[in-house]
Specification:
Order of helices and strands: HHHHEEHHEEH
Largest sheet: 2 strands, antiparallel
Radius of gyration: 20 Å
Mean pLDDT: 90
Helix content: 40-55%
Number of helices: 7
Low-confidence stretches: none
Structural class: alpha+beta
CATH superfamily of one domain: Winged helix-like DNA-binding domain superfamily/Winged helix DNA-binding domain
CATH class of one domain: Mainly Alpha
Oligomer: single chain
Length: 177
């Protein structure tokens, strides 16, 4: 079955999900960021077909999320490493891990821990305001239109909602003077 591309939707979540929206891609990135980069090791760890793994890896390389690195010349062998773009997926994976630990870990507890080497403590990721450090929640944030926003496929209702919020906010702000 052919999947509909979300690459042209004026939404960063849609565009990111277009690449990162299947479980195999997330798990490949988990493994690569943990240091598992050889094709055979990835296939064995994930239990994924070689054909599916090759396709996902090719797409991640094409998108600049992973790069191939030669580790043996005879016979030629390569492994995969995260680029800077790929490393920036780490907080996304941590957020998924937090949510999975909270809602699906079961009575045995979380399958893995995150240990922050700088302070020596086990921790978890928190989405926080880049300006004041307060935790971001759906209750203390609002989304407003950005410069690349537009009404179109995938944003027919959301874009209008954001525009309405921006207009409401502008009417509520005092005029400069």
């Amino acid at each position: 079955m052919t999947r509909t591309s979300l690459a042209d939707v004026a939404c960063s979540i849609a565009r990111a999900t277009d690449l990162f929206g299947d479980a195999w891609t997330a798990l490949i990135m988990r493994d690569v960021l943990l240091g598992v980069g050889r094709f055979d090791d990835l296939a064995r760890d994930l239990g994924i077909s070689r054909k599916v793994l090759a396709a996902r890896l090719a797409r991640l390389v094409e998108e600049g999320v992973l790069e191939r690195e030669r580790y043996q010349d005879h016979p030629p062998r390569e492994q995969y490493r995260a680029t800077r773009k790929g490393e920036e997926l780490f907080p996304v994976l941590l957020a998924l891990m937090n949510w999975g630990d909270r809602w699906y870990a079961g009575t045995a507890g979380a399958p893995a821990r995150i240990h922050h080497e700088s302070c020596g403590q086990d921790t978890h990721a928190v989405a926080a305001c880049a300006h004041c450090g307060e935790e971001l929640t759906p209750h203390n944030t609002d989304q407003l239109p950005g410069p690349g926003g537009r009404i179109g496929p995938g944003t027919e209702v959301v874009a209008q909602l954001l525009l309405k919020r921006a207009t409401r906010g502008a009417e509520e702000r005092p005029a400069a003077g």
